[in-house]
Write a structure and sequence with these properties.
alpha+beta, four-stranded mixed sheet
Length: 381
């Protein structure tokens, strides 16, 4: 088999990379947190320009503001965003929202929410993990209890990216406490301005990604805010998660390749003992292994994306792609930092930012251990 991009795909890649270099500088680097006011206004402006180009929701159907683009083009977007070290790459994404609404939402919910997201007018966040449940998400304790025509929500979510900037949250909550733990869970859409919703920051782990804890204290929403079939939220979440793993793999490949290219450039320019450090086999071999990891990871996520595009089962391939690619990103970031030496710890160098940001790729959308568990299950173990 041969994986090839069309001329249109390659032109999109060049356009996106040029756009990112021109429009998204790094004003928040070194701040230790996502910046306020002027820098946020810059991000909103960039996000709006992306929305105008149709990039934020390119894979959505046209009737909801998308371009009906293939998953391949969406993967290019994710890879290039990570390659350019976009610190706020997650806030541009609507990775889980779109597919969840598209597959499980009512027609009214789709028409109400999706066009405003496509236009860049509304910011969403997702609430999944809790203080006591992460990988074991079926053990979540947030409750949405029916009271007349409403649902009353109590509980808390953590690691909720950019919740303090969000207009709405897509919440995974237990709607039937008496059901088995893998059942009785539903998606609920909640306006962040609803009384009882409060947000507090969690210490920042990576510049450009500000995490929050969102608490729900007797938050009342109409039952029509249920997304999808009541009690099927966990199963629906797992279905969408497979697509999300391919997106994470694409992000990981972009980061891994960025480390390779930065290291090649530096190894040619940096001299020690009278010659470029790239002339030494210790450096050349290290970079060769980095390039190998990036190529293997790219092939893995292309394979998973091709299966998804053809409508064939892809759960195992998505888990393999996410596992291989996220480890490639982290391993390449570590090796690149070693090549750069002391400069590898300075924020002005790309590899420092890759090293800092890549670890989350081994955690989000299921940890490395979860991917291994899924692959083993698919093998019948």
């Amino acid at each position: 088999m041969e994986f090839k991009f069309t001329a249109e795909d390659e032109e999109f890649r060049r356009e996106l990379r040029a756009f990112m270099k021109a429009e998204l500088p790094d004003p928040w680097e070194g701040a230790g947190r996502y910046p306020e006011e002027d820098d946020w206004d810059l991000n909103v402006a960039v996000r709006q320009k992306m929305a105008e180009k149709g990039w934020l929701t390119m894979h959505w159907p046209e009737e909801y503001g998308g371009q009906a683009a293939s998953p391949v083009k969406s993967a290019i977007f994710n890879e290039e965003i990570a390659y350019m070290r976009a610190p706020g790459r997650d806030i541009f994404g609507v990775r889980m929202l779109g597919p969840t609404l598209m597959i499980h939402g009512s027609e009214e919910q789709k028409k109400t929410h999706l066009p405003s997201v496509a236009k860049g007018e509304i910011q969403w966040c997702q609430g999944y993990s809790e203080p006591e449940s992460g990988s074991d998400l079926a053990s979540l304790s947030t409750r949405a209890v029916r009271d007349g025509d409403d649902l009353v929500i109590n509980g808390a979510k953590v690691w909720t990216t950019m919740a303090h900037r969000a207009d709405w949250i897509m919440l995974l909550t237990r709607t039937d406490p008496d059901a088995p733990k893998h059942r009785g869970i539903s998606f609920v859409l909640v306006d962040m301005k609803t009384p009882g919703v409060s947000v507090r920051p969690i210490i920042n782990m990576a510049n450009g990604h500000e995490f929050n804890q969102v608490t729900f204290d007797d938050v009342r929403v109409p039952e029509e805010n249920l997304l999808g079939e009541r009690g099927r939220g966990y199963a629906n979440f797992l279905r969408i998660l497979d697509e999300g793993r391919i997106a994470i793999a694409a992000l990981s490949v972009g980061a891994a390749q960025g480390c390779v290219d930065e290291s090649v450039r530096y190894a040619k320019e940096r001299e020690a003992f009278g010659r470029p450090i790239g002339a030494n086999q210790a450096i050349a071999f290290k970079i060769a292994r980095m390039e190998t990891r990036a190529q293997v990871a790219r092939a893995a996520y292309y394979d998973a994306a091709a299966l998804m595009l053809s409508g064939k089962p892809f759960k195992k391939q998505a888990a393999i792609a996410k596992l291989v690619a996220s480890e490639a990103a982290m391993d390449n970031a570590r090796d690149a930092t070693q090549i750069f030496g002391g400069y590898g710890f300075m924020n002005e160098y790309a590899v420092a930012r890759h090293y800092r940001d890549s670890k989350i790729l081994e955690i989000g959308e299921g940890t490395t251990e979860v991917q291994l568990m899924l692959i083993g299950r698919e093998l019948g173990l």
